[in-house]
Amino acid sequence: MISFIVPAHNEERWLGQCLGSIRVTMEKIAEPYEVIVVDDASTDSTHRIAEQMGVRTLQVELRKISAVRNAGARLAKGEVFFFVDADTQINERAVGAALEVLRGGAAGGGCVFDFDGPIPIWGRVMHFIGVVLGRLIRWVGGCFIFCTRDAFHAAGGFPEGLYAGEDIGFIQRLKKVGRFEVPKPTVLTSGRKLEVVGPWEVTMLLLRIAIRGPRYENKMAMDILYGPRSEACKRPVKSAP
Question: Residue 70, class by beta-carbon neighbours within 10 Å (0-12 exposed, 13-18 middle, 19+ buried)?
C-alpha cells in the first residue's frame, strides 16, 4: 500500500488538480494506494472537493504544517509515504523513480519541481540555481517528499517545533536514518508565491535558509507562508465578466 498525504488549508484553487494527478498516476502504476487529505481549518471548499473526489479526509485545526503532515501519517496505512502539497501535480515518472530508489534501499527522497505556468525572469534564474544546488546537496522543497513508513518513524516525523522549515528539518532527520535520493524526474507546482513576493525578499529568504537551515523563521517568512499574503495567493482566479 502506498499512502499519499496531502496537507491543505484553503486549497480549493488547486486541490482538484492535485488529486486528479494522483489518480491518473496510480491508474498507470497499478499498485494499491490511498489518499489522505488533511484539511487544516479551511474556510473554503477544500473539504467538499476532497469528499467529492472520494479520498479520505481528516479535519484538524492545527495551523502548523509539520503537525498537519504528521497527523496524516498517523492515519496512513501504507508502507510507503508520499507527502504531496495541495498545489502540486505528480506524475508516473516521479512516483516510479521514487519507488525504485526506495526499493533499492533508500530511506527517502524527493523530487525537484517545475512551475505550472510562466514566472518572472528573476524567478526562472533562481529556480535554475535552486534545482542545481538541490540535486548537488540532496535538498528539495516540501511539495514532494517520500519515505518508507519505517524511516518516517525512525526519523520521528516532521519536527513540530517549527512553523516553517519543517521539510528541511525532516530531510535532515531522514539523512540520519539512511540514504536520501533526488531522482531525475520533476513534479509540477504552482508559482503562486511569486505573485506576492519580489526578488529581494526571495534572495533574503534563501540566504536565511542557507545560514540557519530549517530554523529560518522570521516575520517576513511567516507572512509569506501563513500571513495575509499567503491567503491572498490562494484565492480562486475570477473569470472575466
Answer: buried
Grid cell for residue 110: 524527493
The per-residue pLDDT for range 37-60, each reduced to its tens digit, is 999 999 999 999 999 999 999 999
The pTM of the full predicted model, rounded to 2 decimals, is 0.88
**Minimum mean pLDDT range among 12-21, 33-42, 156-165, 167-176:** 156-165
CATH fit for domain 2-118+139-191, picks 2.60.40.10, 3.90.550.10, 3.40.50.620, 3.10.450.330: 3.90.550.10
Predicted confidence (pLDDT) per residue in 190-235, tens digit: 887 777 677 777 777 777 777 776 776 777 777 766 665 455 555 5
Q: What is the DSSP string of 202-239?
A: HHHHHHHHHHHTT----HHHHHHHHSHHHHHTTSPPPP
In degrees rounded to 5, what are phi and psi of residue 83? -100, 115
Q: Do 221 and 164 form a contact (C-beta atoms < 8 A)?
A: yes
Rounded CA gap, 188 and 28, in Å? 18
Task: Pick the closest to residue 141 from 218, 75, 202, 223 (CA basis).
Answer: 202
Residue in 127, 198, 206 with CA at minimum distance from that of residue 168: 206
Kind of pairing between the strands at 80-84 and 144-148: antiparallel
Closest residue by Cα to residue 114 from 83, 138, 143: 143
By the 8 A CB rule, do 202 and 229 touch?
no
